[in-house]
Amino acid sequence: VSPRVWTYVGDLDDNPNLADYRGYCDLRMTMGWARSLQLSATGRLGDDGNRGSLQLDLSYPLMELFSGSLSVYLYAQYFTGYGESLLLYDRRSDALRFGFALYR
Q: What is the tens place of the pLDDT at every residue in 55-90?
């Protein structure tokens, strides 16, 4: 479990109520094996208690399939909640993505 604390620097004229949706910290928990399947969950709760987000990341190293010769991960991500992007931070969104990652 690894908490991260956020500080907003400068003026927030473009995003005046950003902290209401993203808050000031998030909590990340990872479980699994270093050279196998890994699941990571990141939760964030905005200042307003009914706003927050959850992101789930699932990864699997392809080097296990190709005898250790390829350092790439098969990756799936699910996001639900507020604050996925700074542009649309105040709109709720749900997204499911699949792809490849170079590290996790």
A: 999 999 887 666 666 678 999 999 999 988 888 889
pTM: 0.82
| CB atoms closer than 10 angstroms to residue 67 | 7
User: Does residue 28 contact residue 50 with C-beta atoms inside 8 Å?
Assistant: no
- Quote the CA–CA distance of 47 and 52 in Å, as a whole number: 9
Task: Write the CB contacts of 6 (distance below 8 Å, at least 6 apart in sequence).
Answer: 22, 23, 24, 25, 26
CA nearest neighbour of 101 among 59, 42, 39: 59
H helices of 1-104, in order, are 18-22
Closest to 38 in 3D by CA, of 73, 2, 1, 72: 73
